[in-house]
Structures are given as structure tokens and as C-alpha cells.
Design goal:
The chain is an alpha+beta fold. It contains 17 helices and 12 strands. Strands 7-8-9-10-12-11 form a 6-stranded antiparallel β-sheet, with helices on both faces. A two-stranded antiparallel ribbon has the order 1-4. It has a two-stranded antiparallel ribbon with strand order 2-3. Strand 2 and strand 3 form a beta hairpin. The two termini are about 45 Å apart.
């Protein structure tokens, strides 16, 4: 980490003041004299190595009763729009990395048998390499962070890290990198996570919370080979706006407004009853956004609603785009996306983690996102439409992303280091970085172990993908390619 690691003074013992009572939700006033002492968070993390050796993370023992790839995909399709599931299957069949993107639930099932320290963090739940990207903040500046939280839940931090490392191996293989480069991508991902967590553990709490500004990310992770790629993605992201989407996807409606134009199977105008239900749901949504944003939204009128197919893992969920226009006819497009229960939730108890009762799945997604990102969409909220929970967010909010499977071989490790650092920052918002840093340590024992796991699980994913492709060829399951 070199020049950006700040020297941190040793904490002195502070006697509790009898005038100030202990207040729930705040830390105790007394601190250990040494930040690495046995009673400190760092010392507690280091002690966890005795129960869960870092080298043990290399192991993968698949649990009994594991569903085959086709059954896993079919089970994950339950509750989705039936006519869209062939599109989802077709996208998953495109490549092993695409299969991984659509099989977060299957991987969670497999991770149950892997070692965990018992330290909980707010998880992305689907932290593969394509779920990081650029988006605009309230001032229109671009930030980079995790950007998909459909599966977010509190759970073992190791699960996110292992999924990210595995995705780097698969993306590297698809990009044509040799096996050592792919393994190195996973190894560097974990190394960046570990070093970043150690950095955050040394900083004052407020500085750690907002650490590693985006302009420092490339130098922090030594990802200079990515500079050209990031600049191209940034330029494209700046033009990826509601106005641009509306210009391509809408037409004048004849009454001074605009309406969506059908572009099947990806986009279709919603029938009147369906559109009315979605529009009505935005009334409840207003009660979930920050109150200072309500006057902003009040300056827009709802003009049209369309159903739009999204993602790989999300294909078949109910997802709408809502066209709003201001007094000048300038558009704002909101996405109203169905929020299904996290696919990780059924597997957490077997790993020793409690699953809290979820009040509303859309609320779970929004709060999880806010807990992990440094800067979040200012219009995030949630609602219910026809009894189903939805999240609401801006659509085409200057979003841009790197396709990890299209990287040059010498960029795979750079991208791994960048995403590993971002994941550490996100986890440190909910888990004490001193505790995780104490466990991860200074050497590369964890890096080697998780990289070995990633290669093994990438092989498993390739076998699952091949099984799905054979099932499609045999007519066992329907798939629609190229959509």
C-alpha cells in the first residue's frame, strides 16, 4: 500500500467518566492500550485463525443432495414470468461466467460446507466481477462501487470474497488468459481485499468509512493497466442518461407528452391496468425516499410505463421503467424492479448465521445497498405493486461497467485488485475492519487459499454450465439465445 498508509498513534487507555452513562449503539469508552492486544478487535480476529486456519479456505466439499445444474436453474426460475425464463436460460448458457452470474443460489448452497469465521458483514450476495461499475452521484460526478444488491443480506464475508475470486478466474478464462493469469487474478483480488481491510483498520473511523476516493482507486490498487479501459467506460457512462434512453425508446404521444415504443422481447408498453398499478405504487414509494427529495419528484408527471427485461440473474422478474417528464418535457426514468427474497437466505442458518425477518424485500435491497455503498442513488426507495415487493431507483443514472470477460490478459489482475479493494470498503461499513484485518493478517496465506478455492469452483461451474448446454441440446429445458 506504500505511501497511502498513514501512521496511526497507539491508543491510550481512557477511563470511563462516571457522568457519562453507557449509551446503546455506541462503543465503550475504554480502549485497549495496544490496538493489537488480545482484547482488541484485531486481537480477536487473529485468535479466529486457531479455529479457522486461513489455509482451510482452499477446501471445497460439496454438500450432499446438491441439485444438478438444470434442476438448480429450474428451481431459481420459480415465480418468474414463465415466457421469459427461456431468455434467462439462454443467457446463462452463453458461457460459464454467465452461468455463474445466474446461479448465486447454487453457489450459496455449495458454500455452506466451506469454513467461515462467524464474522458477519452486509453482503452483496452476488459479488461477481460484473457487478461493479460506474454511476452518477447527485452532482452528476461518476463514482465506482458495487452496483447490484438484489441478493444482499447479512452473512459471512468470506462468501462474497470467494464468489468474486471465482468470477475473476472464469472471466479470465473467457477472455483467453492462461491458467496462471486467471489464478493470479483471484490471488490479487484477495490480496487487495486483505490489504485494504488492513488500511481501513488503521484509519480513524470516519476516514475509514469514506476511504479510497475514486480518483485514488487506480493508484491504491496498482491498476494502471486499466486506465484506458476505465476512461472509455467513463466516457460512455456520462452519456448513459434518462434523456438518452427516452430519446431512443419513446415517441410523442399526441397530447404533448411521450410514450414508450415496443421493442420486443426486451421492452413492451404495459397494459392499462398493469401500468395504473405500477403508477399507483409510486405514491407509496414517495414515503420511502428521503423527505428532501419529495419536492423534486413532485415536479415530474408520470407519462407511461413499460415492462423491460433486465440482467442475467434478474431475467423473468417483473421490472418496469416509468417515464416521468418535468415542465420542460425533460425526462426522468425510474426503474421499478421486483424484489425477490435473497437466494442466500435459505442457506445462512446451516452456516451458523441467523436470518432476520424481512419486513419488505424492496426495503431489504435498498437498505443493504445504502449500507455498502459510499454514495447511493438519491432516489432509492421501495413500494408494493399488486401485492409484490419492488425496489425503485433511477434508470440509466450514468451507469457504466467493465466487461471482465473482455479484458486483455494483463488487465485481469488489475481488475481483481480494484474490485477486491471496493469489496473490502463495502464490507467495512458493517463489519469492524480491525476484526477482519486481524484474521486476514499480513502474509498471503489467505490469498493463496481463496485463489485455490476459486480455481476449483470455477472448474465446478464449467461442469455445471456444460451440463446445462447438453440439457438444452437434448430438449430437456428451453432456451432462447441471443436476446
Amino acid at each position: 500500500m506504500g505511501e497511502i498508509e498513514a501512521a496511526v498513534p497507539v491508543q491510550r487507555a481512557v477511563e470511563a467518566d462516571p457522568r457519562i452513562p453507557a449509551v446503546p449503539g455506541f462503543a465503550r469508552r475504554a480502549y485497549p492500550k495496544e490496538p493489537g492486544g488480545p482484547q482488541s478487535p484485531r486481537g480477536a480476529g487473529k485468535a479466529l485463525r486457531e479455529r479457522v486456519p486461513r489455509s482451510s479456505h482452499a477446501s471445497l466439499v460439496l454438500p450432499g443432495g446438491r441439485p444438478d445444474a438444470v434442476r438448480a436453474v429450474e428451481e431459481s426460475n420459480r415465480g418468474r414470468v414463465p415466457e421469459l425464463t427461456p431468455i434467462r436460460v439462454g443467457r446463462m448458457a452463453a458461457a460459464p461466467f454467465a452461468f455463474l452470474r445466474g446461479s448465486a443460489g447454487l453457489m450459496a448452497h455449495d458454500l455452506v460446507g466451506t469454513p467461515v469465521t462467524g464474522v458477519a458483514a452486509q453482503l452483496c450476495g452476488d459479488a461477481h466481477a460484473a457487478n461493479f461499475g460506474l454511476y452518477g452521484d447527485a452532482r452528476g460526478n461518476l463514482v465506482i462501487d458495487l452496483n447490484d444488491f438484489d441478493e444482499t443480506v447479512s452473512g459471512p464475508w468470506e462468501w462474497d470474497l470467494k464468489r468474486l475470486a471465482t468470477s475473476l478466474v472464469l472471466a479470465g478464462r473467457e477472455a483467453g488468459a492462461d491458467e496462471e493469469t486467471c489464478r493470479r487474478g483471484a490471488y490479487d483480488t484477495v490480496g487487495a481485499y486483505r490489504r485494504t481491510m488492513r488500511l481501513l483498520a488503521k484509519l480513524p473511523a470516519l476516514d475509514a468509512w469514506n476511504a479510497i476516493a475514486d480518483e485514488e482507486l487506480v493508484s491504491h490498487t496498482d491498476a494502471r493497466d486499466l486506465l484506458g479501459t476505465l476512461e472509455r467506460v467513463s466516457e460512455k457512462a456520462r452519456n448513459n442518461t434518462s434523456a438518452r434512453f427516452a430519446a431512443k425508446s419513446t415517441e410523442e404521444s399526441g397530447d404533448g407528452g411521450r410514450r414508450f415504443v415496443d421493442a420486443p422481447p426486451v421492452l413492451r408498453r404495459a397494459p392499462d391496468t398493469e401500468a395504473a398499478a405500477v403508477a399507483a405504487g409510486l405514491g407509496d414509494y414517495l414515503g420511502t425516499v428521503s423527505s428532501d427529495r419529495v419536492p423534486l419528484l413532485a415536479r415530474y408527471a408520470i407519462h407511461d410505463v413499460a415492462f423491460r427485461v433486465v440482467g442475467t440473474g434478474s431475467v423473468g422478474t417483473r421490472s418496469y421503467v416509468v417515464l416521468l417528464l418535468d415542465h420542460r418535457g425533460e425526462p426522468l426514468v425510474l426503474q421499478v424492479k421486483e424484489a425477490r427474497p435473497s437466494v442466500l437466505a435459505p442457506h445462512l442458518p446451516a452456516a451458523g448465521f441467523e436470518v432476520p425477518e424481512v419486513e419488505h424485500e424492496g426495503r431489504r435491497v435498498v437498505l443493504g445497498q445504502k449500507r455498502m455503498q459510499v454514495v447511493s442513488d438519491i432516489l432509492l426507495g421501495w413500494t408494493t405493486v399488486d401485492g409484490r415487493p419492488f425496489q425503485v431507483r433511477q434508470f440509466r443514472n450514468r451507469k457504466g461497467s467493465v466487461d471482465p470477460a473482455a479484458l486483455a490478459a494483463d488487465q485481469v489482475d488489475d481488475y481483481g485488485r480494484m474490485t477486491g479493494a471496493l469489496l473490502a470498503r463495502a464490507h467495512a461499513h458493517s463489519a469492524d475492519p480491525r476484526l477482519i484485518a486481524g484474521y486476514c493478517g499480513k502474509n498471503d496465506e489467505l490469498d493463496d487459499a481463496v485463489a485455490a478455492f476459486a480455481v476449483t469452483y470455477a472448474d465446478r461451474t464449467e461442469a455445471d454450465h456444460a451440463e446445462l448446454v447438453r440439457a438444452i441440446a437434448a430438449g430437456r429445458t428451453a432456451a432462447e439465445r441471443g436476446v
